[in-house]
């Protein structure tokens, strides 16, 4: 994610039996407003508190769908020492992070610029409570709060039904950490110059530190036509599920590698669930292979996201055998367990085309 979050904002939680109807209604209005918004411009501030405090200030421009610009200057929050500048431009297809004359890119998503335009990614609105109204300057904000373990999350909703302030505080090993994201001087549905949303010429693309290009990542996957490695892995509930069992009676099995804290994984899961529901009776099997999350977190997420396909817990040998270097990664196997399709990331058209060749459409 281009904006350097202290921790991922998504807190995947199961819905409570009783909930605050006012909070749910407000977040529904936030979602509707964000989807209908044509453009937004604002001043933006991000404050990180803790052992290494940091402050970033600058401007945010958003033009739906998925176009925009974030320009920030960072500084030490306590010493006011100048830090690095940050420039992110989204052109509708990619989000470009620019440093000097070089840039890295990743597929754009609704969370690339201002993650809270339509709510809080991955959270159930029923977990929030309306805790009052707080006036900041001349604006009165509805304040929503959610608590989970050591973390407290607060949202400040403006009269225009925008989340203009996000505050998270937490304590880890006795140390207080926090993050605040604030928008001010907000203007809605104004004109935004196309030039400000276009990648400047004369820049050189480079790989993000520690990352690999998509071609390089894809090259490490099992080749089409090869036999998929066998696995026999534990489900969150305990019993094991093998690839051989998943293939029984199926025309194809889609294998999805993912983890809870992965925004692109969460973004593709509703689409995978739709495929599973539509094609299960016709012979499609599906297995999600989770990397690194405990059983409780997996089960909570599956319930919250309403995913019904089987999930197992990865072991290093399985990740290595399947050439997994990035998440999400997807494979489609035929009835004999041979690879007919693979992708790093979600390619709906490619998946449907591969499934159609196996008689699933």
Helical coverage, percent range: 10-25%
Structural class: alpha+beta
Q: What ranges have pLDDT less than 50 throughout 5 or more consecutive residues?
A: 1-15, 77-83
CATH fold name of the largest domain, please? outer membrane lipoprotein receptor (LolB), chain A
Distance between the termini: 34 Å
Shape: globular
On the 0 to 100 scale, the average pLDDT is 86
What's the number of structural domains? 2
Gist?
Helix content is 20%, strand content 38%.
Question: How do the strands and helices of this protein lay out in sequence?
Answer:
Elements: H1 21-36, E1 39-49, E2 54-63, E3 67-75, E4 82-91, E5 94-99, E6 102-107, E7 129-136, E8 139-148, E9 151-157, E10 163-172, E11 175-188, E12 204-205, H2 214-219, E13 232-234, E14 240-242, H3 243-247, E15 252-258, H4 263-279, E16 284-290, H5 295-305, E17 311-313, H6 316-321, E18 329-334, E19 339-344, H7 348-357
Describe the 3D structure.
The protein is an alpha+beta fold and 361 residues long. The protein is built from seven helices and 19 strands. The protein has two domains: 21-205, Clam (outer membrane lipoprotein receptor (LolB), chain A); 214-357, Glutaredoxin. It is 20% helix and 38% strand.
List its traits:
361 residues, outer membrane lipoprotein receptor (LolB), chain A, alpha+beta, five-stranded mixed β-sheet, Glutaredoxin, 2 domains, disordered N terminus
